[in-house]
Amino acid sequence: MLIAGLLWASDKNFETNYFAVQVIGNGTPMLLIPGLSSSGEVWHGTVERFSKNYTCHVLTLAGFAGQPATGDEVFLPKVKAEIIRYLETLDGPVVVMGHSLGGFLAYWIGSERPDLLKAAISVDGAPFLGALQMPGSSVDSIAKASEQMYLGMKMQTDEQYKAYQPYIWKSMMHDQEIANQCMQWGITSDKNTVALAMYELNTTDLRSELSKMKVPTLQLSAWAAYKQFGTTRKSVEAAYKGQTKLHPNIKIEIHDESWHFIMFDESEWFYSQVETFLATD
After folding, report:
1. What sign does the CA torsion over 239, 240, 243, 247 have?
2. Interatomic CA distance for residues 109 and 186, integer angstroms
3. How is domain 9-280 classified at the CATH fold level?
4. Are 173 and 264 in contact (CB under 8 A)?
5. Helix or strand or coil: residue 14?
6. What's this model's pTM, rounded to 2 decimal places?
7. For the chain, what is the mean pLDDT?
8. Where along the chain do its domains lie?
């Protein structure tokens, strides 16, 4: 259901072990990075909407959603480096859009190589996810908690890991039928890659690097799924403003009803925000 009607054409001119890429459309290059355990299929609606005016380069990262794992002991830094190498092959500055972990990578790439970007969009991602999830914590305490989580995930059996997937996916989007489809991405993801990516994501702090990100950036955020934990719109807005205060050119928009997968829960709002941003960047 997520990708019905789309015909994908693979980019065969670039080789890497860190992601698969599929290309569709015509126009300004747009790189789309999915989140943890997600397939590039998460961008189905986005590709349908934007491929008339953009050439969409859709990634699925190694170890996620059935893609072969690299088995490396370092993951996200290498993914970031390989994406930059890929961007260097494209014609002209690129719009980079990422969801969750992909949004974090958009910040990382934009801070390191702003010359390659036309604009950046983070969809419920953050420059330092660990501090966003555990506000008030020190970097050291976040690292310790993340290490315990990492070791705990690695100790899980494959059966335990797969049994936990329904809870994860159904807690992140409204439509439970779509959640059931997406759950297969989690089940077919490599447990060790997911654990390592989560650890690196939670312990990498990009906040001080954002002053280098001199490209227009849109941060789309959601908070409703976390009401039960005491999260409010005000606290989320304050957290994002605090994390991005060094960014010279950022716009933050927050939806009050969407859960984590904004492009599914509130697709028209999502498309409208992106279109308005890209029209003015």
Report:
1. negative
2. 25
3. Rossmann fold (3.40.50)
4. yes
5. coil
6. 0.94
7. 93
8. 9-280
